[in-house]
Amino acid sequence: MSEFVPASHVYVDNPASTVDEVLRFLSQTAVSYGVANDVDKVFEAFKAREAEGTTGMMGGFAIPHAKTAEVSTPTVIVVKFSGEVEWATMDSKPVRCAIALLIPDDGTQTEQLRLLSKVAVLLMDADFREKVLASADSQEIAGLINSGLES
């Protein structure tokens, strides 16, 4: 899994300022990568998940995720924002980085649950959060996440 998040899937200084802008960017990016085939349906899957309960975590992070038949390959996209995004979070603080999961809807939840669990564990580590938020280097951020997903 060492290359699960390539540096090309890490965006820094993204100008999104609302949750909808973030989710739309993620949906468009997934289609541009060829891992999803319908921007609107992926966006709707992200929105449906947010409606179930926020994916805003703590310490400036969110883990938006979409599980839909429009996604063909499990994919992680990381977006750091040039500013802060108002997002309902566990600590009521804005989001500065989103680690998004796109999961095929193949009838099982194993991959989604495994990835969500690993990302959630990573985000409990203050050192990890600080390093990601301090970095403006896509390669470094991908390395931090890949190292964490391997463990």
Automatic annotation (TrEMBL):
Source organism, top-level taxon: Bacteria
Enzyme kind, highest EC tier: transferase
Annotated PTS EIIA type-2 domain residues: 3-148
GO molecular function, one term: transferase activity
EC number per UniProt: 2.7.1.202
CDD domains in alphabetical order: PTS_IIA_fru
Cited SUPFAM superfamilies: Phoshotransferase/anion transport protein
Database matches in PROSITE patterns: PTS_EIIA_TYPE_2
Pfam families documented for this protein: PTS_EIIA_2
Keywords annotated in UniProt: Phosphoprotein, Phosphotransferase system, Sugar transport, Transferase, Transport
PANTHER family: NITROGEN REGULATORY PROTEIN, PTS SYSTEM FRUCTOSE-LIKE EIIA COMPONENT-RELATED
Protein's name according to its UniProt entry: Fructose PTS transporter subunit IIA
Taxonomic lineage of the native organism: Bacteria, Bacillati, Actinomycetota, Coriobacteriia, Coriobacteriales
